[in-house]
Amino acid sequence: MVVMNMVQAINATLRQEMERDKSIVLLGEDVGLDGGVFRLTEGLMDKFGKERVIDTPLAESGIVGAAIGMALNGLRPIAEIQFMGFIYPAYQQIVSHAARMRNRTRGGLSVPLVIRTPYGAGVKALEHHSESTEAIFCHIPGLKVVTPATPLEAKGLLTSAIRDPDPVLFLEPTRSYRLLKEEVPEGEYLVPLSQARKVREGSDVTIIGWGAMMPLIQKTVDELVRQGMDPEVLDMRTLAPMDYASIITSVKRTGRAVIVQEAPKNCGLGSEIAARIGEQALLSLQAPVERVTAPDITVPLPKGENYYYINPARIERAVKRAMSF
Amino acid sequence: MLIDEYDPLKGTMLQILDKDGKVKHGLEPEIGEDRLVQAYRTMVFTRLADDKAVRLQRQGRLGAYPPSKGQEASQIGPALALDKEDWMVWAFRELGALLLKGVPLWRLYLYWMGNEEGSHFEPDIRVTPSAVPVGSQVVHASGIAYAAKYKAERSVVLCYFGDGATSEGDFHEGLNFAGVFKLPVVFVCQNNQYAISVPRKQQTAAATLAQKAVAYGIPGLQVDGNDVLALYAATQEAVERARKGEGPTLIESYTYRMGDHTTSDDATRYRVEKELAYWTERDPLSRFRAYLEGKGLWDGKQESSWQEEASRQVEEAVKQAESFQAPSLQEVFAHTYATMPEDLRQQLEALDKELNGSKEG
């Protein structure tokens, strides 16, 4: 075991997987010589050479499109998009090609591709550096969307994503990159995709979150426990295809659900989770499903970010509203 | 090298066969006689198969279809320069190239009839599925070529797209990527003069499409797109460069779509009659046939017996495609992911019950 933050855990995972499998190549803007703007790929070009750690031209559609071609011809590319706010030129490649290649060829061709990108607000960043638009990717059949909450989770989920036969969008919560350190095994470590993580077992209410919301939920839960409550906490970690079964099982038991979502409210993942609970656990509910989300506005620049970004107090109030029924 | 002699900025176009099939002195490429005959046979076969597809659409037996008529040389000429191990990346109007590469016609009919199995090719054939979003396949070609180079394979990638695609961002990103990494790709732009209704002049103020290569630091060459020999010769050079590690080439195949954009289109809304007459005189088939007859490789008797045999094969392909079973509900779900997620499995079961299990009430 080595104590690592998420940046170090991801870097170590990339290194380990590249040592294991020569067909893995990394490509993206500034991933080589510079080691990535967040230093996620630091030292990898030195170790594996510039043919395997590729500084590409500044072209997101080109990066993902070329990675699709590489995957079609036997490689296992890991593309980095520098920030989620810059991924949209590649949206066509992701939706119209990566996600559907297997189906449109009836299994003849496939795209084992990982697209890594930092996402999320709360870091006082420039415009277009704080997006949390996971929902527009989770809507796409054929694509998997994964986001880790901790360094250990990052290692396990990224290893599984790299070995997955289908395209995976791997969302790295920027705010959590260096937020927390924990012990991470040096050897191989896998976390299965499409399985939620029960962070805390409880009986009063199910709090559902993912990515950068998990540390905020943890803070809230610590406070709630101090006040004598017993919440259950689920980290969804694979956002598509999502493990709805774990949510339903939990909510049927606790009778209450609070969904915490960094993204704006309308058509967010929370909408779908609430609908599933309505379909499958309505008669177990003792309170309306609560959603803690960003408002439906553009992420404000740093001076206004505090209005937008979710804080533990908001989560606590939502839990108490649910508990008041 | 033709690539050095035909400067795209000077507007010189490579032509080896004139419109009457007379060969230009000193330019005749070295190519086996069998290969020449095979090219011609494939061109004839393509025209018949294409014509059949249009008729099938009119009869309601095939969906919307983009006709190839007039572009047979433009499709087949470049493909003649490929080996079995080479990749072909295409858009949607490349019927002749696919047939030459060895994709069975019945599969292509099956695709246009509306079945994904029509894009399930044998893995060793190295052909991608059609890419309907215009230009989006160009970046794939560069990635495939990167992988070929990385694996130190001998293979090259031939990538087709149309004149409209040159306005798309992916055209730029794909050529730029290939140029930077000196990748083994030959980009063939089938400039058929129209992107549906919008004429070539409205796509770009550039004098030729081939000259766009200059900006990527790669060679570009404009070729008579109805001259199968010129296309073969230019592509052959480009393929050799690619195999030697000298990087990509852009070939503009200057041709003409004699039919509609697709069977849903009506080209008379935006094209004048005399334009079609001009290009009919430059038909790629009659020109090549005259050349082959001049060399004693083809005659009227061979023509009529091949027409008969090709028509028979086309009918056979129609039969095979039409008798292919429609997909089951399970099949349309099965290839969304390598392993079906639990939630999707439940959706499949529920839909199956809803559609087929109504007896249970």
Can you tag this structure with a few keywords?
heterodimer, A: 325 residues, Rossmann fold, seven-stranded mixed beta sheet, 14 strands, 20% strand, globular, B: alpha/beta, 2 domains, two-stranded antiparallel ribbon, 14 helices, 45% helix, 9% strand
Walk me through this protein's architecture.
The complex is a heterodimer of chains A (325) and B (361). Chain A is globular. In chain A, α2 links the parallel β2 (24-28) and β3. Chain A has helices at 6-20, 44-48, 60-72, 91-98, 101-104, 135-138, 151-163, 213-226, 244-254, 269-281, 305-308, 312-323, and strands at residues 2-4, 24-28, 53-55, 76-80, 114-119, 144-146, 168-173, 182-184, 197-200, 205-209, 231-235, 238-240, 257-264, 290-294. The termini of chain A are far apart. Chain A folds into two domains: 2-184, Thiamin diphosphate (ThDP)-binding fold, Pyr/PP domains (Rossmann fold, 3-Layer(aba) Sandwich); 197-323, Rossmann fold. In chain A, α1 (6-20) runs parallel beside α7 (151-163), α3 runs parallel beside α4 and α8 packs across α12 (312-323). In chain A, the strands form three sheets. Chain A has a seven-stranded mixed β-sheet with strand order 3-2-4-5-7-6-12, sandwiched between helices. In chain A, strands 9-11-10-13-14 form a five-stranded mixed β-sheet, with helices on both faces. Chain A has a two-stranded antiparallel sheet with strand order 1-8. Chain A contains twelve helices and 14 strands. By secondary structure, chain A is an alpha/beta fold. Chain B is of the alpha/beta class. Chain B folds into two domains: 2-326, Thiamin diphosphate (ThDP)-binding fold, Pyr/PP domains (Rossmann fold, 3-Layer(aba) Sandwich), CATH 3.40.50; 328-361. Chain B contains 14 helices and eight strands. Chain B has helices at residues 2-5, 33-58, 72-79, 95-101, 105-112, 138-150, 169-180, 212-215, 228-243, 273-280, 284-294, 300-323, 329-334, 342-356; strands at 13-14, 87-89, 157-162, 185-191, 194-195, 198-199, 220-224, 249-254. In chain B, the strands form two sheets. A six-stranded parallel β-sheet of chain B has the order 1-7-8-4-3-2, with helices on both faces. In chain B, α7 (169-180) links the parallel β3 (157-162) and β4. In chain B, α2 (33-58) packs antiparallel against α11 (284-294) and α3 runs parallel beside α9 (228-243). The radius of gyration of chain B is 21 Å and the shape is globular. The relative contact order of chain B is 0.17. The mean pLDDT of chain B is 96. Chains A and B meet through α3, α4 and α5 of A and α6, α7 and α14 of B.
